[in-house]
Amino acid sequence: MAFLKRRPQGAEVDFDHLPRHVAIIMDGNGRWAKKRGLPRTAGHAAGAENFRTIATYCKDIGLEYLTVYAFSTENWKRPAEEVSAIMGLLKKYLLEAIGRMERDRVKMHFFGDLTPLTPELRELCRRTEEISTHYEGCQVNICLNYGGRDEILRAARAFARDCARGEKLPEELTEAAFDGYLFSAGVPDPDLVIRPSGEIRISNFLLWQSAYAEFYFTDVLWPDFTKEELHKALAAYQGRSRRFGGV
Ligand code: IPE
Ligand code: IPE
Ligand code: MG
């Protein structure tokens, strides 16, 4: 925080005690566009731009991990034109991100099964991860074709395969061992999960990892979710008492 010239205005946030890991369901792009009489794709473009702003800010305040929900395993149900517009925006974002990487120095990871993406997009995701491997500071995880249930099933299958090969015994499956089979292997659980847009549901996001996360819901739509809105979420988090089942 010392490198920020002055403390941000708005809700009182203790920047010396931030959550380690914040996760965001970037929802409300379509309604944001509709309110303005624009096509839904304009909302996705505004949402992508806001992601860039918030991710950069998270890095600046010293957050360790930011995980964002960009495209779910269920989002393929949308009209083909909308899906292809989202994929087009993703390509544009990744190309720009690769171009700015040395400046931004944000470590990027993807959670989700990338195989249904075009080879070009998969290659961009791979390059983004590869280039940023050695960056230190904030790690941004982008959930793409991600579903919490799909992730848990994949982990269960992978463990079963290891057992069938004689490399593992069923008794060896502890919570920590299971973590190692998830897309999020090695990443601490989210402390705070934020959902803008007014929906009060998890929509298949980080089902295993959010067991003890604090939740913050707001009616603000994702493209309008500013730094000040993030401050409100962080301040609310800091006012919570986390007991993890204890007293
Ligand atoms: C979130 O915004 C983006 C994706 C799910 C890809 P939506 O597109 O779901 O926006 P609303 O919920 O329809 O407003
Ligand atoms: C969740 O939003 C997925 C993402 C933001 C990527 P949705 O808009 O798909 O969720 P539902 O359909 O309202 O539950
Ligand atoms: Mg939505």
Gist?
With 247 residues, this protein is an alpha/beta fold.
Instruction: Indicate the CATH architecture.
Output: 3-Layer(aba) Sandwich
Give a short account of the largest sheet: 6 strands, parallel
Report the strand count: 6
Mean pLDDT: 95
Strand content: 5-15%
Description of the structure:
The chain has one domain: Decaprenyl diphosphate synthase-like (Undecaprenyl pyrophosphate synthetase), CATH 3.40.1180. 41% of the residues lie in helices and 14% in strands. The chain has 247 residues and is of the alpha/beta class. The chain has a six-stranded parallel beta sheet, sandwiched between helices. The mean pLDDT is 95. One 3-methylbut-3-enyl trihydrogen diphosphate binds next to strand 2.
Give descriptors for this structure.
single chain; 247 residues; Undecaprenyl pyrophosphate synthetase; six-stranded parallel sheet; globular; binds 3-methylbut-3-enyl trihydrogen diphosphate; binds magnesium ion
